[in-house]
Amino acid sequence: MRAETVARESATAWHGVVPAALAAKAREVAWEVARRTADSAEVIDHVMRFTEQTMHPMEWYLPSFGYGHAGIALLHVHAAAVAPNEVESARSLAAGFAFIREAVAGTQVQPLLAPGVFSGTGGLALCVAGCVEAEPRFAPSLRRLHEQFAAQVAELELPMTERAVSDSDYDLITGAAGTLVYLCSIPDPDESLRAAAQRLLDYLIWLSEPPRDLTITRRWLISPELCAPLGRDPREFPGGYLNLGLSHGIPGAVAALAVARQRGHRRPGQVGAIRRMVDWLLEVRRADEHGPVWATEIPVAGSGEEVRPNQPNDQIGWCYGTAGVAVSLLAASEALGDAELRAAAFAAFEGVLRRSEERPALSPTFCHGVAGVLAICLEFAAAGSEAAREHTPRLLAELLSHADPAHPLVFRDQEEPGLFVDCPGLLTGSTGVALTLLAAISPARPTWLTAFLAR
């Protein structure tokens, strides 16, 4: 086939080639989501509708990356690149800047008290940084946020008491791992930011070390008394549990430690910490007919022993399951220069791809649906996985199949089987789906992916 024919039938993105028809459809659908979320008052109306529909209400917080105007600002800044004409592109940028100004102004009503990414200072800074790429006049606001971010990390409570650790202390969503990941994305960090990175690294390194309390196996154990507040039935975890989700579990800490090393943030014991956590992840790995598989958590018996399931069911999504573990192993392999670990990461995700053909995700959204799996697929495709490159068009088409213009926001989250909600947010709503569609056709890797993939 002649080169010019290939060019007409495909589009080149940062991760590889996308069929031109799929790229055009992704552009069209993402733009439609952006069009329906261009007015702040209408977005609040959508939020109110979502609040009435959902069984898992999340507070809409204007400065929030995951559930707020800040995340929607990113959509409009990115959508400007696929607008049908220059006038619409300018309007999209203006909408994005309006949303980010509202997000920053919202901190005057509800101050940002924590540095975390999905609802804290780090997340707002990430969104402002995305706006700075399009409009440098936002740079002073970003510098102030970074000053606040560094100060908050310096004061952050990081419990170094065994049996008193919660996943929110160390995870990607609100904890040390996600906070460190954002910090690692800041170019030319000053001394206060470097000191913040060292503090977070020291905490994650401590978390990896063998416990002094010989009745527990890992310092990142979630104790039984913390199960109920985290939505787990304590009767199922008499000795607590060890979280395996990328969002809330130890894979996020592995990825953060690894990415920090690659970005020049290094502390004594860091390599050993990565190795210890990775060795444990590989120990609890199981397999099915498709390949390696990880459970969502490892229960702990009342006697303190880990109860490792023989045949865990893979949750195909970003937040929990094998796909997220594969992301963390890929990051670790690159930080350590470990070819065998890289091969293990590829094998793990390629197994997910085979499972997803038989058992597609029910929801299109990022957290627990097709968008998150597609984003991870793009990452593995960029890293050189031929299987990921082959499956990218399938997953992109699957994601687009969920689009329905009859829905208020085009995409609906299926929180539970049969329960559909219309959420405008980034984490579990239409904004995250639209951003993923744009990521799939972008010539450059979007920086916002760092919040989810650590890299």
Shape: globular
Beta percentage is 5-15%
The helix content is: 40-55%
Unreliable spans: 1-7
Through-space gap between termini: 36 Å
Strand order of the largest sheet: 1-2
Write down the secondary-structure element order.
Answer: HEEHHHHHHHHHEHHEEEHHHHEEHH
Return the structural class: mainly alpha
The mean pLDDT is 95
Query: Cα-atom Rg, whole angstroms?
Result: 21 Å
Number of DSSP E strands: 8
Let me know the largest β-sheet.
2 strands, antiparallel
Provide a count of the helices. 18
Walk me through what this model shows:
With 455 residues, the chain is mainly alpha-helical. It is built from 18 helices and eight strands. The protein has helices spanning 3-9, 20-36, 40-53, 69-79, 86-109, 121-134, 139-155, 167-170, 176-184, 191-208, 250-262, 270-283, 322-336, 339-358, 370-383, 386-401, 430-441, 450-453, and strands at residues 10-13, 16-19, 241-243, 286-288, 291-293, 297-299, 413-416, 419-421. The longest helix has 24 residues, at 86-109. Residues 1-7 have low confidence and may be disordered.
Write the layout of secondary structure elements.
Elements: H1 3-9, E1 10-13, E2 16-19, H2 20-36, H3 40-53, H4 69-79, H5 86-109, H6 121-134, H7 139-155, H8 167-170, H9 176-184, H10 191-208, E3 241-243, H11 250-262, H12 270-283, E4 286-288, E5 291-293, E6 297-299, H13 322-336, H14 339-358, H15 370-383, H16 386-401, E7 413-416, E8 419-421, H17 430-441, H18 450-453
Antiparallel strand pairs: 1-2, 3-6, 4-5, 7-8
Helix pairs in contact: 2-4, 2-16, 2-17, 4-5, 4-6, 4-17, 5-6, 6-7, 7-10, 9-10, 9-11, 10-12, 11-12, 11-13, 12-13, 13-14, 15-16, 15-17
